[in-house]
Structure formats: structure tokens, C-alpha cells
Amino acid sequence: MKFNESVERFKENMEFVRNMSSNTIGAYLSDLRHFERFLNSHDIDYTTVKRRDIELFVKEYSQGKYSKKRPSATTVARNLSTIRSFYTFLYISGMVGKVPTELIKNPKTRRRIPDYISHDEVMEILSSFKETNLGKRNRAVVATMYFCGLRVSEVCKLRLGDLRLGSSPAVRVMSGKGNRDREVPMNDQVLTILKDYLSIRKDFPVDEYEDHVFVGTRGEPMARNVIPKVLNTQVKLVYPDKRIHPHLFRHSFATQLLQKGASIKTVQELLGHANLATTSIYLHITDKEKRAAVQLLSD
């Protein structure tokens, strides 16, 4: 069986057996394309790959081969994890005799503390959108990412039926990362901004059967690659020296909730994290808190 055919079987397993999200599957397939370039460059049959071949791939990939730019240690570790999953699938399926990634450790990675911006900065950005149909839509997108902690992909997949705008307003996130569903309450600020957008949504050329919350200028579901472009244009008007990416609003949501006293368990559920350790990266300690802690030792 050819490499591409095995990858296709792996893809079907991820999609229909493991029920993985389309974004995760796409990332796995991208990683395997890097590995395929390695195999082709060394004329190696994927069914006969040995441990030393995997180690050589990790070395060369870390040096910038097989990708457009030199990857970070985190990206290298993710690629190795993908290859490990791929060969585990091949082994279970009887297509290879062993898993060549056994005993190979992931490269050490440095856990970065996520960047975030202040509440005032977010409000400055939200207030900078024009009172046009596109301005109201874009303001609602940013507000949903910040006040509800949604990922870009989750915002784009929202359906009208996922919004509860009456009593106990909330947004329902269906099949989030890891295919986990969750419900996030909405406060008055995001509710007002969303209602303002929804009141003019009909002005977009939306088909009667189109129920995505956020739509494009042709009435199509808003594509995830549009949001960074919209955000970059808007942020430059307010903070020309800042680089603000969409995920920063999710980081800010989590960080500010913890700083204001929300429990880490609550924030974990709001973010849809499977592991509490993932949420713990948002436990920033401010300089003020550090100074207060040191003062405890004073006479």
C-alpha cells in the first residue's frame, strides 16, 4: 500500500473512529506531509522506517528542512507526536511490524506564558469599529472571542440556534476542540453587541437556509482566515505599535477572570479544556502580588 493510501486510512480513522475535529485532522495531515518529504528525499519506504530514521527526521526538520521556515521545538514535538500516532495506527492495523517511534523522547519545550491585553484596551478596540453593517459584525466577532473566550474556529461555526438571548443568555459551543461541547454564559455587554449585529444581519445577502451567526459580504459563512485580517486592520487604527492576534482575546478572557478571583476549575470549563494543567498557564502572578508575597517575610 502506498504512503498516501495509508494516510487516507489514518484520516478516516481520525474522522470516523476517533471523532477528531477537522482542524486537528488538518494539522496531522500537514505534519505527515513534512514526513513524506523526508521519506522521499532519502528514498525510504515508510513501512521499513527504523528508529534512526525518525531521529534523522527530527534532526533535519529541526534545522528547517521540509518546511518553509525553521520550526519551534513545540512544532517539532507535535510532528513527532503525529508520526507516533500514525505508526501506532499502522501497527494496530497490521500494516507494520512495530512502532519505530518507541523510546524516542519529545524535544524539550519551553512553556510560554500567553500574552494578553487589558480590559480597557479591549474596550478601546471594540469602540473603534464604525457603525456600519461590517463594523457591527466585526465588533460582535471580537466581543464574542473576548467575553465568551471562544476560539476563532468556534466563532465561525456558531449557528443561530447556539445563541440563547432571552433569560440566562448563553452561547453553546458545539464540537469545540477535542469535540467537547460546552455552554458559556453571556454578560450584558456582549449580549448588547450581539443583538446590535443580529438586528442588521438580514441586510447581508443571506440565504434563508443559512444559519451561521457570522456571515460574509456575499452571505456565506464567515471564513476563519478573514478574522485576523479584519483585526489587523482595526488594531492598527487604535494601537499601531501592537501586534494583536485573535487568540489574544481568549487569553485575555482567561487571565482576567483568574485575576478577578474566578476559580481555575470554572475557567477550565468555560474554555473547554480537557486538562486542568492547560488552564494553569493562565495563572499569571502580577508584580504587585510578587511584592506582597515578599513583604510577608518583613519584620
TrEMBL record:
Molecular function GO labels: DNA binding
TM helices/strands, residue ranges: none
Entry-linked SUPFAM superfamilies: DNA breaking-rejoining enzymes
Record key words, sorted: DNA integration, DNA recombination, DNA-binding
InterPro entries: CB, DNA_brk_join_enz, Integrase-like_cat_sf, Integrase_catalytic, Integrase_recombinase_N, Integrase_SAM-like_N, Tyrosine_recombinase_XerCD
Domain Core-binding (CB): 1-91
Residues of the Tyr recombinase domain: 112-295
Pfam family, one: Phage_integrase
Swiss-Prot/TrEMBL GO biological process terms: DNA integration; DNA recombination
Gene3D superfamilies listed in its UniProt record: 1.10.150.130, Intergrase catalytic core
PROSITE patterns: CB, TYR_RECOMBINASE
Protein name: Integrase
Source organism of this protein record: Mesotoga infera
Lineage: Bacteria, Thermotogati, Thermotogota, Thermotogae, Kosmotogales
